[in-house]
Amino acid sequence: MKELEERIRRDGIIKPGNVLKVDAFLNHQCDVKLFDQMGREWARLFAGKQIDKILTIEASGIGIACVAARHFGDVPVVFAKKAQSINLDGDQYVTKVYSFTKQREFPVIVSKRFLNPGEHVLLIDDFLANGKAMEGLIELCHEAGVVVEGIGIAIEKGFQDGGAKLRDAGYDLQSLAIVDSMNPDTGEITFREA
Question: Which residues form the Phosphoribosyltransferase domain (predicted)?
Fold first, then answer.
């Protein structure tokens, strides 16, 4: 998606350790108009698929998923929580995932009442690097007996193996921008065709 690639080039900041900071428009300050364009593109890419719910992980995926849901007939958005709280009651699906950006493992929790066997879900998130967050969501989906219709990612780091692993496993993964390389010295970011 050219609009997203241009925004990454303009406002993205490359940090040491292959970190791409896009907090100016994607995961701290939110450009809702851009989110709407992204949702429209995912609706086009997943056209013809049954989508009953969108599933994401807190916190950065929530805004993107909510805006995208408008393009799928206002389907509900469910987000996996990263911490247990007194508000989480009843039976739950729980797994653990490793976060590349936070460099730690955390729980991923969804109340069983929000994922029902036989439902068709679309997974959406802001970034895909090593694929650990998506693997965790997929594990929860399998446990719940829901069908993963596809995976929508805003920015995929194509030089890391998460995308290849998910595609090789047979998932319909649609990334709107695939970063091929990042140079922290020059600030240059190259993209590959999605």
Answer: 47-148
